């Protein structure tokens, strides 16, 4: 081998050579996303919901609280022929489209807040249980098993009976319903990597438990936890709508999809569109979130990808 060939072999990769594979990987993921029609629809729907929740005043044509009794239980435009209320009016003559648009903010914000709180609590408890083990592990997992054995609706009713049915109470209840998922997943992953060689090397170099957990354990949990959080968001949205429908969640005058569903339950025969379109909003949001979660699962674990 010539000296020039040796120099070429030992020359470090240029910035262009390092960046191009990363760009190609991102491009490949975008192509896979566009190739999957279901995932593309989910991403588009999710973007629409985020924009709608972020800027409801620009999307909704009416004030969601504005009442006009002459349009009480007004059918949608394609039935009534009146273009004023596209999706019709509710029992107080309020524009249903505007109420659904404004309800997206409360439903999505409550869902995101509950997911963040439950993830933080569950990950912290799972790390403690998996890394330190012993009595802490037994106590945390016993608490998780007790909660899993207790029906969630009864738990929600119990908490709301003690506290007042406010948005804060609802977020706490929803967070309590989900922390177990993160705790069990985190514990299982930590147990699988706790005794690996790189962990032993970190301990031999004198790294303490906090440093090992932050620098070596958490990075390996990021992918699976993001997927779980995405899928849990859809479940939380449904739970929020369910509790608000039962009167245990968001309270008027705050608007959420569950509140609109509750408003329309007495008018199913004469104003079916009130419940139908608010329920459709919940279904589309959950479909979008779950579809994106499925796509992320396949990206993180290629063995699950369909051929």
What's the overall geometry? elongated
CATH class: Mainly Alpha
Largest sheet: none
The arrangement of helices and strands along the chain is HHHHHHHHHHHHH
CATH topology: MetI-like fold
Please give a structural write-up.
This protein is an all-alpha fold. It has a single domain (36-304), classed as MetI-like (MetI-like fold, Orthogonal Bundle), CATH 1.10.3720.10. 74% of the residues lie in helices and 0% in strands. It has 13 helices and no strands. It has helices at 3-10, 15-35, 37-54, 56-59, 77-80, 96-132, 134-149, 152-162, 167-193, 197-204, 209-245, 257-264, 272-300. The protein is elongated.
Considering the chains and any ligands shown, give keywords for the structure:
about 300 residues, MetI-like fold, mainly alpha, about 0% strand
Briefly characterize the structure:
74% of the residues lie in helices and 0% in strands. It is mainly alpha-helical and 307 residues long. Helix 6 (96-132) packs antiparallel against helix 7 and helix 6 runs parallel beside helix 9 (167-193).
């Amino acid at each position: 081998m010539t000296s020039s060939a040796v120099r070429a072999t030992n020359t470090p990769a240029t910035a262009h050579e390092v960046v191009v594979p990363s760009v190609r990987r991102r491009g490949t993921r975008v192509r896979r996303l566009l190739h999957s029609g279901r995932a593309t629809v989910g991403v588009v729907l999710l973007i629409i919901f985020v924009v709608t929740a972020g800027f409801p005043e620009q999307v909704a044509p009416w004030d969601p609280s504005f009442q006009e009794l002459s349009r009480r239980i007004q059918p949608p435009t394609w039935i009534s022929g009146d273009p004023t209320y596209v999706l019709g009016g509710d029992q107080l003559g309020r524009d249903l489209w505007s109420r659904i648009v404004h309800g997206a903010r409360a439903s999505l914000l409550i869902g995101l807040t509950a997911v963040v709180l439950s993830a933080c609590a569950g990950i912290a408890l799972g790390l403690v249980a998996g890394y330190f083990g012993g009595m802490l592990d037994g106590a945390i997992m016993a608490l998780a098993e007790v909660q899993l054995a207790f029906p969630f609706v009864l738990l929600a009713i119990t908490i709301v009976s003690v506290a007042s049915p406010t948005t804060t109470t609802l977020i706490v209840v929803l967070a309590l319903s989900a922390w177990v998922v993160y705790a069990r997943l985190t514990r299982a992953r930590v147990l699988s990597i706790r005794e690996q060689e790189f962990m032993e090397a970190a301990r031999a170099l004198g790294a303490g438990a906090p440093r090992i957990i932050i620098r070596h354990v958490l990075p390996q949990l990021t992918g699976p936890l993001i997927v779980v959080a995405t899928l849990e968001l859809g479940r939380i949205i449904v739970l929020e709508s369910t509790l608000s429908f039962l009167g245990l969640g968001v309270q008027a005058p705050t608007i959420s999809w569950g509140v609109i569903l509750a408003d329309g339950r007495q008018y199913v025969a004469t104003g079916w569109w009130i419940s139908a379109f608010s329920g459709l909003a919940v279904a589309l949001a959950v479909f979008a979130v779950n579809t994106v979660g499925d796509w992320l699962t396949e990206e993180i674990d290629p063995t699950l990808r369909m051929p």
